[in-house]
Design a protein that fits this description.
This protein has 190 residues and is an alpha+beta fold. Helix content is 22%, strand content 24%. The protein has one domain.
């Protein structure tokens, strides 16, 4: 009897963790049948500008919704205040839109895309992009009509996954600088 109860609790926990690793902030689009591939959780904002956020990958990773590179992002505002803009930067050209975004019409009628005014096809109703760098590696995602309230969520798509230098690379650079400084100091005092 106790073993059966433990097995049913374990099955519930496994099922719950699988559910918790999918993000319902996005509709099902193309290959992303369980919602967003990534969830951006905004944790701090000042005067409507997001100042801190985390990015979480869905488990299992569904990959790009178009099967190639287009990536579906959900946004959850947990900052305690409203958010009207989110600046994103990457090593890849995430804002190099080629016309097949989530609201392009290539994936049928997507909830949230009706009334979208963006020209890129990557931004649903209430979202638009600006301040896109010449290299297309950074830009601002704006939330309007109204701004994203605390606890609210929305979605958008970008041309690729956001990539950044690995934290280990930064640590190794720091250790390298320390080692170089120590070698310089040793030569100077010897």
């Amino acid at each position: 009897m106790k073993i059966t109860k433990l097995l049913s609790i374990a099955a519930f926990l496994i099922g719950s963790s699988a559910y918790a690793a999918t993000f319902s902030e996005c509709p099902a689009v193309g290959n992303d049948t369980n919602g967003c591939e990534f969830l951006i959780t905004i944790t701090a904002a000042s005067h409507g500008v997001a100042t801190a956020y985390s990015i979480t990958l869905a488990q299992p990773d569904q990959g790009p919704f178009d099967g190639a590179d287009d990536t579906l992002y959900g946004v959850l505002n947990s900052s305690g205040t409203y958010v009207s803009s989110l600046y994103l930067s990457s090593n890849s050209d995430i804002f190099d839109f080629d016309g097949d975004g989530v609201c392009s019409g290539d994936y049928g009628a997507i909830p949230g895309c009706a009334g979208a005014t963006g020209l890129s096809g990557y931004d649903p109703a209430g979202v638009y992009y600006d301040n896109i760098s010449p290299t297309r590696t950074s830009g601002t995602v704006n939330f309007y009509g109204p701004a994203l309230a605390n606890g609210a969520s929305t979605f958008f798509s970008l041309e690729a996954q956001i990539t950044a230098p690995e934290p280990a690379s930064v640590s190794l650079l720091g250790f390298g600088l320390i080692a170089a400084g120590a070698a310089f100091w040793h030569r100077r005092t010897a």
